[in-house]
Write a structure and sequence with these properties.
Layout (H helix, E strand, L loop, with lengths): L3 H11 L1 H10 L4 E2 H8 L3 H13 L3 E6 L2 E6 L1 H24 L7
Antiparallel strand pairs: 1-3, 2-3
Length: 104
């Protein structure tokens, strides 16, 4: 069953730029400068999106000198994927058993 936390996380990931950022961070930790170069977003816009991702628990930060690196937290995405896998299993079982509620 999806929770309100899952729903909030889906809203966070539904933004195209944030999804692009998450996709980039799945490959390697990157700093804001790298993310600006890769996405073409303005630095202030990117920083706002990173704040949303941090507050949602999707990324962690790692200070490195005067830079901050962002790293994806795979367990957050795995938990959400697990919820969707549970839904898919339930839907498969429902379809296989041809379950449906009778109309009044």
């Amino acid at each position: 069953m999806l929770t309100s936390v899952d729903t909030d996380l889906m809203r966070v990931l539904a933004d195209p730029l944030r999804l692009r950022i998450v996709t980039l961070l799945a490959r390697e930790a990157l700093c804001t400068t790298h993310l600006v170069e890769e996405t073409g977003a303005k630095q202030t816009n990117l920083s706002n999106h990173m704040k949303v991702l941090r507050e949602a628990g999707v990324v962690d930060t790692e200070p490195c000198g005067r830079f901050v690196y962002y790293r994806l937290r795979p367990e957050v995405l795995e938990a959400l994927a697990g919820r969707f896998a549970d839904l898919a299993r339930a839907a498969r079982a429902t379809a296989d058993a041809d379950l449906k509620r009778a109309c009044p």
